[in-house]
Structures are given as structure tokens and as C-alpha cells.
UniProtKB/TrEMBL annotation:
It comes from Pseudomonas jessenii. InterPro entries: Bact_response_regulator, CheY-like_superfamily, Sig_transdc_resp-reg_receiver. This is Response regulator. One of its GO terms (biological process) is phosphorelay signal transduction system. Residues 28-149 form the Response regulatory domain. The keyword Zinc does not apply.
Amino acid sequence: MSDRDILSDAEREALSAVMLEPDLPQQRVLIVDDDKDARELLSKILALEGIRCVTAASGEAALKILVTDAEIKKLTIGLLITDLRMGHVDGLELIRQVRESVRAALPIIIVSGDADVKDAIAAMHLSVVDFLLKPIDASQLLALVKHELGIK
């Protein structure tokens, strides 16, 4: 430490440690679709870009992951991709329940092979990021996912 230094070496080191951005866990994408092949395909497309995914076969399973498993397993879900046509809790109901939960701000993308204008309007009222029709354009999906997760 010279006469001009305001901070000691120990203080400078402590300040540097505080100023460094903490290692944040990588955000994952939760993919919800009752079609196993569709879930796996979306997961593989994202995995090729290094994006980690968690999958669920139903709206109920997705809600459990978002509410319970995320806390217990320390999963950081940063985006939800869901199909519309599923069993008891379909895609729109899943989105409604997410919007009424502590995860209300979670970005959501709908990927569906069977949708009409009424579904698209309902989805937009629930503040989804986008509504993609199957078969999806992988580059469009990747661009949306990267944007929402803040990946360059």
C-alpha cells in the first residue's frame, strides 16, 4: 500500500469479491406436452444450443415442478414452453394457474399443432411471449428462447 492508496490490500480484495457477479444457476426451460416425442424433440433442439430442460407430461406435473420441485431440487425455471391440448389441465389452464401463482411473471411460449384464433386470443390475454404452430421452425424457437433467457 502506497501513501496515496485509500484502501488497504485486504480492503481492496474484499471489495473485489463483493463486486464480482455471483455465479447464478443456469436457468432451465420447462417443456410441457403430453406427446413424449414432441417433448423430447423440443428438449433436444434446445440441448444442442446448451440450454438445459426439464420436461413434464401434463399440466399437473408442470405445476408440481414449478411449485414444489423448483424449491426442493433448486431448479431455476426461467421459461415455460407448453402445448395447448392436454388432459385434465390443458395448456391454457396451466398458463392461468401460473399467472395466479408466485411464478406469474414467468415467460411462456405456446407450441401447438391444434389451435384456432380463439385459443391464440386467449393466450395473448394471458401474456404469453409467442404462439408457435407445429411443426415448429427450430431457428425461430431458439431465437425466442435465447431472448427470454438472456442468452446471446
